[in-house]
């Protein structure tokens, strides 16, 4: 599965996901633009590094839509085939979202924790940063000892990927894309 993170404008990005089976999925615009690392790229890295199969990208790889992507318009499918594919996509996506359990929740919590930690090291101190740090401390305390150990073990891999991908993302001009192949952490193409 190839995930295209497309820098659409100065403060906007979109995503296009190509899968071996099934039509391409898109989200345009995608939420959580950041000049350093967009929200969904954080999720991609964290889920890949932790080996999460039921997070956003694991669900999409399994044939779902993670509740937020839709079948791409145009392409090889007729309008009727696209409608049928979209209905099937939504049904499968809803089933996968219901079945994600703790791993889906861990995806959200871990993405938040790694994002706050990484940005705290690269951005100047501020009241907002201190508030985020406090919330991250409370969130981390809510994890089990095994979950905390799992996150600690993945930290070097996650932060290394964040640093590499942020550099590549910052270098993109509008209309250009950074492409990752699930679950790889290095740009392709």
What order do the helices and strands come in, and which of them pair?
Layout lengths: L1 E8 L2 E7 L6 E6 L8 H12 L5 H6 L8 E2 L7 H21 L1 H22 L4 H15 L3 H27 L5 E5 L8
Antiparallel strand pairs: 1-2, 1-5, 2-3, 3-4
Helix pairs in contact: 1-4, 1-6, 4-5, 4-6
Please sum up the structure shown.
The protein is α+β, with helices and mostly antiparallel strands.
Note down, in words, how this protein is organized.
Residues 132-146 have a biased composition (Basic and acidic residues). Residues 124-146 are annotated as: Disordered. By secondary structure, this protein is of the alpha+beta class. It has one domain. The protein is 54% helix and 15% strand. The protein has 6 helices and 5 strands, in the order βββααβααααβ. It has a 5-stranded antiparallel sheet with strand order 4-3-2-1-5. Helix 1 (39-50) crosses helix 4. The longest helix has 27 residues, at 145-171. It is globular and about 50 Å long. The two termini are 14 Å apart. 30% of the residues are buried. The mean pLDDT is 88.
State the shape: globular
What string gives the helices and strands in order?
Answer: EEEHHEHHHHE
Helix content: 40-55%
Strand order, largest beta sheet: 4-3-2-1-5
If helices are DSSP runs of H or I spanning 4 or more residues, what is the number of helices?
6
What's the total count of β strands?
Answer: 5
- Give the end-to-end Cα distance, rounded to a whole number of Å: 14 Å
Main sheet specs? 5 strands, antiparallel
Number of domains: 1
Using only C-alpha atoms, the radius of gyration works out to 17 Å
Poorly predicted parts: none
Mean pLDDT: 88
Region (Disordered): 124-146
Biased composition (Basic and acidic residues): 132-146
